[in-house]
Specification:
Layout (H helix, E strand, L loop, with lengths): L2 H10 L4 H9 L3 E2 L3 H6 L4 E9 L4 H15 L4 E5 L2 E5 L6 E9 L2 E9 L1 H26 L5 H48 L14
Antiparallel strand pairs: 1-2, 2-6, 3-4, 4-5, 5-6
């Protein structure tokens, strides 16, 4: 079913279609390339939610407070072309939130990037896991023969990669949950603060 079809069903049973939009917004959209499948999970995620109406400057402050409470980080706040931008500082797994309020609608976008964390994980943990695997294999296989050397190198590379991949997959679940909490808090703050869209003025003349 498409999102519009789900919203139509929700409306028929008395549920506000806007709740469906919010539920869909907190589901991260991840990059699903070959690298993601090989490594055991994506490194980048994106979430987006749009609500009707505009935010005041005070409302922007409330959204920032909600973001900080959801992430547990103060972060860095900037204003770029009238849009609010918040991002983490000093963390390997980066979060970036953009809130723009234009033309009677407010949009929040959440971008998550675990790329730097992955580089460290597969570089350091992979190497440590590889040495441990090599030590175990060295106790079993005779390393002075060609088959022994090949087996030792294979154990080092394979063991290190599998160790890092397992950690990457496991921690990815927690990261996605963090993104859902962040978007849930930001979208709720927007829904609670947004001003209804302005109605067109009636310029007709009466006789």
């Amino acid at each position: 079913m498409t999102l519009d079809e789900i919203k139509a069903v929700a409306s028929e049973v008395g549920l506000d279609p806007a709740l469906v939009d919010r539920a869909a917004a907190i589901l991260p959209t991840a990059s699903t390339g070959v690298a993601s499948r090989v490594l055991g999970g994506p490194s980048k995620y994106q979430l987006e939610y749009t609500a009707p109406g505009k935010l005041s400057k005070e409302d922007f402050g409330r959204v920032v407070d909600a973001i900080r409470q959801a992430t547990g980080h103060t972060g860095k706040v900037d204003e770029v072309l009238g849009a609010l931008e918040w991002q983490t500082v000093g963390e390997t797994s980066q979060l970036h939130v953009t809130v723009s309020s234009r033309e009677n609608q407010t949009t929040v976008k959440v971008l998550g990037d675990r790329g730097p964390t992955g580089a460290i994980l597969f570089g350091v943990v992979g190497a440590v896991g590889g040495f441990l695997s090599m030590g175990i294999a060295g106790a079993i296989i005779e390393p002075t023969t060609l088959p022994g050397i090949v087996g030792l190198v294979s154990a080092c590379l394979g063991g290190g990669f599998l160790t890092a991949r397992t950690i990457w997959t496991t921690t990815g679940k927690g990261y996605r949950a963090k993104l859902r909490r962040l978007m849930g808090a930001a979208s709720k703050a927007i829904d609670d603060s947004v001003q209804p869209p302005a109605l067109p003025s009636d310029r007709g003349e009466t006789s």
